[in-house]
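User: My notes are a mess, but here's the protein and flavin-adenine dinucleotide's SMILES. Can you give me a structure?
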Amino acid sequence: MPERLKAYKQVWVFVEQERGQVHPVSWELMGAGRKLADKLKADLAAVVIGPEGDVTSNAALDSLCYGADLTYLVANNVLSGYRNESYTKVLTELVNIYKPEILLFGATTLGRDLAGSVATTLLTGLTAECTDLDVDADGSLATTRPTFGGSLLCAIYNLKCRPQMATVRPRVMPMPEPVARSAARIIIHPLDLVEDDIVTKVMSSIPDHHSEKSNLSYADVVVAGGLGLGSPENFDFVRQLAAVLGAEYGCSRPLVHKGWVSSDRQIGQAGKTIRPKLYIAAGISGAIQHRVGAEGADLIVAINTDRNAPIFDFAHIGIVADAIWLLPELTAAFRARLSSHLRTRIAN
Ligand SMILES: Cc1cc2nc3c(=O)[nH]c(=O)nc-3n(C[C@H](O)[C@H](O)[C@H](O)COP(=O)(O)OP(=O)(O)OC[C@H]3O[C@@H](n4cnc5c(N)ncnc54)[C@H](O)[C@@H]3O)c2cc1C
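Assistant: No problem, the inputs look usable. Here's the predicted complex:
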């Protein structure tokens, strides 16, 4: 390792908060960061940036419960609401002063935007949308991600610059259990930035009432359909089963391309990663690009007419059947079960 890089220590996780909420991917990354820090025998640090007040200070305190040895906290009302310019300035300043070896972000809209500009400003490398992070024997960060359309996984190294930066999508890493940490500390970093220094002004935020917000990534039960369903009308069988089960519904990529389902419902490499307790996949072949987004589910039930479909290689329960027939049957069976359960509860 070049001598000038030896000053860089610690593993950092950027704790993302927007509109008063910490994005859960930040805690997932703390779990991954903990493992990297332990291998490097380095400290794990969280970086919390936001407006003054409870939300930011609670995020800093919570980060200690998710494994941080220390947390860098920058709280100033100039930082209320994400703006690329101000957040990039703060984060690059922190990096230049405290010199982390590794810097991780969630591959969310905010995380991708910020990581890209921080890496560009610091003239260091960034691996986007990693599926695995590990430390090699020489201490280098191996950032693994799909390449060649998802048919290969490659490990990318950043040997000459620091920090080594990566983004990871929500739900790719498991959520760690929070624990109490008595020896952790919070380092409050003063902000040398005033509103007049920031060119970008947010005049107002307009919520998009037309966008159909899915909670696919964090749903406990997901029902999804693929091209095997044959038509957009048949995709309603997926929606109906999901509604009866109180589940989210999703799809494979061709259905988004055909305009049958909105893109925020796509599961897979170019869509969402899911980790539900139950995943029901109907008429989906199980191509590798779909598999990488779904194989973290605890229980995968696949319905396919082709007994040799690749999805049966990773499904826990495989049903060789016509999904267009089976989905309405399942919906009717679950609905009947639900109403008999309700009747019993009312009677008691
Ligand atoms: C760069 C890149 C990124 C990609 N990203 C994604 C991604 O994020 N998500 C994704 O899903 N794909 C992605 N893909 C596409 C992926 O490679 C596959 O083409 C896609 O997943 C196939 O979708 P499918 O399984 O619905 O269709 P098909 O592969 O056509 O499979 C349809 C399946 O339905 C079965 N079937 C047919 N009739 C019935 C029936 N009546 N009942 C039950 N089963 C039936 C068939 O046997 C078949 O197995 C990506 C591809 C590339 C190159």
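The longest helix spans residues 323-347.
User: Great, I'll file this with my notes.
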